[in-house]
Amino acid sequence: MGLIPNVVNLVGPVSTKCVLDAGCGTGWLFEELDPAEAWQCDLAPPPTRRPGVKSTREDITNMSYPSDRFDVVVSSLVLMWVSDLATSLREFHRVTKPGGRLVVALVHPYFAHAGYVVDDGFVINRDVSREQELSDYLISGIVGPLTYYHRRPETYYNEALRAGWQLTQFLDWFVDMEHYEQFAADRRTTTRRTGWVPTFTFFVGEKYPDKVGASGSRHAG
Ligand SMILES: C[S@@+](CC[C@H](N)C(=O)[O-])C[C@H]1O[C@@H](n2cnc3c(N)ncnc32)[C@H](O)[C@@H]1O
Q: Where is the Methyltransferase type domain (predicted)?
């Protein structure tokens, strides 16, 4: 609902660009975008939903791509599942061309798995002030068990800055409940949502030609 249009919008026009979907999951991104070159990777072999998409199996903390390879790196709902946030953001910076961009989507750190929806709001029943590992976590009750790393939003931003990213856009997305009620009725979903707190948060980083950042030289070239 709010994820796909926001990621597509933050990525911007791509007809002449080389785009990497890092941690692509089901590979939905390239059903929405048609870049000059489409690359996707994940820990498991990614599914190809469209001809021409190049897929590799990668750990985002240690990718096999050469440096300065992509115009845009997209990381959608991935960084919450990665223990080494700093290395992931440095790897994204390394493989991005100078002048390129990073688009990150996260479930909102202060509200994801922090509590529950009630009729007149949202009750937080977990301490969101400190970093925590929620182990044996099942996505939608099905995928897993995985470890979810709860971090404060500032941790993501500060690590991105330390990795050399110039942060240029931030967006919190809230469910529009009128629209959601129709959407939920059509899909017979039982998930309870609220428009009182943000569901997703997004940020964009740019790699300026004059910013060296903290990218390693392991794959220089
Ligand atoms: C919640 S899914 C999100 C998938 C997709 N990007 C989306 O927006 O729907 C998280 C994905 O991150 C991948 N992932 C987690 N840790 C990873 C790592 N270290 N390297 C590569 N992919 C990773 C998982 O395998 C999973 O496919």
A: 20-104
